[in-house]
Amino acid sequence: MAVKPLAGIGVLVTRPVHQGQRLGGLIESGGGTAIYLPALEIQPLAELPGSRAAKGPVDGFQLVIFVSVNAVIYGAVSLLGNRRDLRLAAIGRATAQALEALGFPVGVVPDGGFDSEALLRAPALAQVKGQRILIVRGEGGREVLGAELTARGAAVTYAEVYRRLPARPERAQLQALEELWRHGGIHAYTATSSELLDALVGIVTPRIRELMDSTALLTGAPRVAEAAGRLGLGSPVIMARRPTDEALVEALHTWIEARHRPPPDA
Length: 266
Fold this sequence. Notes:
There is one protein chain. By secondary structure, the protein is of the alpha/beta class. It has two domains: 10-39 and 167-260, Rossmann fold; 43-164, 3-Layer(aba) Sandwich (Rossmann fold), CATH 3.40.50.10090. It has eleven helices and ten strands. It has helices spanning 17-29, 49-55, 69-80, 93-101, 116-120, 144-151, 171-182, 194-203, 206-212, 222-230, 245-260, and strands at 10-13, 33-36, 40-44, 63-66, 88-90, 132-138, 155-166, 188-190, 216-219, 237-239. The protein has a five-stranded parallel beta sheet with strand order 2-1-8-9-10, with helices on both faces.
């Protein structure tokens, strides 16, 4: 029987519970072991009646932008209802797929990239002067998208439909993870956003924090690598081409192959 490409590799999956299972499944189908430690919890926010009234009916907006899959999960149905004729934009393909799975067609998706900067390069957002735009996001999200659309002449309103909170793992779970890590059971850990990496550093034990320095960080977002430097992490970075589950696993395969490749002749 052929040895699977991730055999013997343990990967710490740190996404919130409902988002980490798919990545973990791909790791395990490749022969690896997925160890789960969600670093963030997602808490739905019920918009106050006054906030809804201030925004007005959703059909008063020329464009509604969803900036994450979580924005879709916690805001699409409650904000859009049964409307299928609204002009929608998604920050990336995964967010667009989440909307389309609920029956909401998406008209604007960036050709490349998965962040605010990529969406702002979409031709459909080049001329937005005079338009009312609703951005559906988490509490306290990045301001790049809204600020630039405002600068282009749009009237931007936010609907904040969830908040991210640091997780509170049980002490026994952290102790078991530390023991596994100390004995070589963790070869890489994931972080798909700088906020998630901040939270992870804040919840682990001091010994796990030390072990992170000699363990590879698997990500698909350059901002996460920058955050690692800011946090003083010495982790070697495995950078995926995109921040998708498939791309993360592909990058992990490439990293393992490189580790096992014999050095070139001197």
